[in-house]
Amino acid sequence: MPLKTHSKRNAVLALVLLVSAANIGIAARLYIPGVVGQLLFVLTRVWILTLPLIWLFWVDQKRLALSLPSRRESLAGTILGLLMFGIILGVYWIVGQHWIDPVDVRAKAQQVGIASPAIYLVGAFYFTFINSLVEEYIWRWFVYRKCEILLPGIRAIGLAALCFTLHHIIALAAYTGNWLVVVLGSLGVFIAGAVWSWCYLTYRSLWSCYISHLLADVAIALIGWHLLFG
Fold first, then answer.
1. Domain boundaries in the chain?
2. Predicted model pTM
C-alpha cells in the first residue's frame, strides 16, 4: 500500500474513533439517566483524552513537543477571544434569552448535578480554564492535523470544524430543546472551530486557540449563570 494512502486510512480511522466516542459520551451523559449514562460519559472522556497521545507515540511514532507562546500569537488569541466574547454575549442578549427557556435549562442542570451556585462556579472554572485547553488539544492538535492529511487548506479547516460541532449539537438540543437555538448555536460553534483551526494552521501552536477559546467560554459561563441563577 502506498505511504500516502496508508496515512489517509490511518487519519480516517483516528477521526472515526475519536469523533464517534465524543458524540456517544455526551449523548450518554445527557440522555441516559443514572449510573450507566455517567459511566459511559467517563469512559468515552478518558478515551478521547488518551487516544491522541497513544496515536502520536505508537501509530505516528513521533515525540511530543511543547513551546511557550509568542507575543504575536498571544495578541492574536486575545483579540479573537475578546471579539468572540462580545459576539456571544451580544447574540444572547439580543435574541438568545428570548428563545431559551430557563426552566428547561435548570431541569437539565439539576439532572447533571450543576444546579447549585457553588458547584456551578467550580464547573465553570474547569470549563473555562481547563476544558478549553483540553478541547484545543483534542480538536485542533489531533483532529485538525488528521483532517489536513485528508484534505488541503480551507477544506481541512471546514472538516475539523464540523467534527468539533457535532457533539455540541447534541448538547445544545438537550439543554435548550429549541431548534432555533440549536441551529444558531451550532453555526457559532462551527465558525469558532474554523477560526481556531485557522489559528493552529497559522501558528502551529495551541496558544492563540486556547486564549481565544478561554475568553469565549467566559461568555458562555456568564450566560449559564444568568439562565440558572439570574
1. 3-229
2. 0.89
> Residue for cell digits 513551546?
67
Residue 111 to residue 90: CA distance in whole angstroms: 28
Q: CA 99: distance to chain centroid? A: 23
* Cell numbers describing residue 96: 438568545
* 63 three-state secondary structure: coil
SS3 133: helix
pLDDT tens-digit map of 89-137 = 998 988 878 777 788 788 878 877 787 899 999 999 999 999 999 999 9
Query: From CA 124, how far away is CA 115, in angstroms rounded?
Result: 12
Separation of alpha carbons 61 and 68, rounded Å: 23
**Which grid cell is 111?**
439532572
> SS3 for 96?
helix
Q: Tell me, what DSSP letter sits at residue 69? A: P
